[in-house]
Amino acid sequence: MGRKEEKKKRIITVPRVIIAIVVIIILIITITIFAITNTLSNMMKMELDESDLAVNDELYNELSEYGITKKEFDSIINIAFFGSDSRDLSNMDAGRADTMMIVSINPTKKSIKLISIPRDTYVNVPGYGNTKINHSYAYGQEQLAIKTINSNFGLNITEYITINFEGLINVINAVGGVDINISKEERDVLNDYLKESYEIMGKEYVPMTEYGDVHLNGEQALAHCRDRYVGSDFTRAERQREVLTEVMGKISQKSFGEILDLVDIFLQQVRTNMDISEYLGLAASAFTNKNDYMNNIISVQVPSTDYGKGDYIDGVYYFVADLDTCKQDMYEYIYNK
């Protein structure tokens, strides 16, 4: 009788365990969906006319020399990242694109590419002629800026994220700041910009005294990103990519629950046309493989100073480069690295 009772107990116990697991899974899914729905309701969304983005429909065929499969090509996510110099989070249209970058995520290779486009790059802005690429944002915000990027570099970007000064400060403060190495000269210039950073946030100005390996809060990191006096505008872009990489590193150290909280904060600081719900699978995979992604970040600039040069045209400074070379550079970094 003892064995029969033991067997009976097992038959009863196993289904209870399964039911408990199912209930927990349902709860997790319900909480996640609720969190995402609540977050999406707080997002600043602005849709684009995808028929007017100069999307390169022949891009895959142009990549034949790289031997990339259609499956990998379709999985790669390219997002235009704009840093508006507007100080008002509710009015991102008030300024120009202080930062223009392509963030490319390859789930197959578990890699992230950060590709800065110098704001003085000499390109054709559709409807406005040849001028600096960051003018495209001032003339037509994300719609025209993405169209300009696609038409000059042969890309197929349709999604964007835009953040301004206030939003960047909030995001960096939310992750707990960033650790950066700065020189004494960079510290001095940082303090010049820092006054406005604290003013934007309604805080009292406190000058930074340290340099070398330092911890920067959001206000200090923004000031560091804006520095174009120590080095060049290209050095400034390197600083921006370094800070963004540090932010991603801080996020990768968080738990899943903490990341959900951060996502809620982040998405309230940006404007985008992305449907975040479409990327839940990628987010889960990225969290599981976060070390692989963090160890496979490529940070570059296109056009490169190897083939681009500063020049004055009609008395105005531009960064001039052969656009066919730029296009091949973009293809190489995004699809062959």
Structural summary, described in words:
A hairpin with a 3-residue loop joins strand 5 (122-125) and strand 6. Mean pLDDT is 87; it is low at 5-14. It is built from twelve helices and 13 strands. It folds into two domains: 1-42; 43-335, Aminopeptidase (3-Layer(aba) Sandwich). The protein is α/β, with parallel strands linked by helices and 337 residues long. Helix 1 runs parallel beside helix 9. The strands form four sheets. It has a seven-stranded mixed beta sheet, with helices on both faces.
Give a short synopsis of this structure.
With 337 residues, the protein is of the alpha/beta class. The protein is built from twelve helices and 13 strands. The chain folds into two domains: 42 residues; 293 residues, Aminopeptidase (3-Layer(aba) Sandwich), CATH 3.40.630.190.
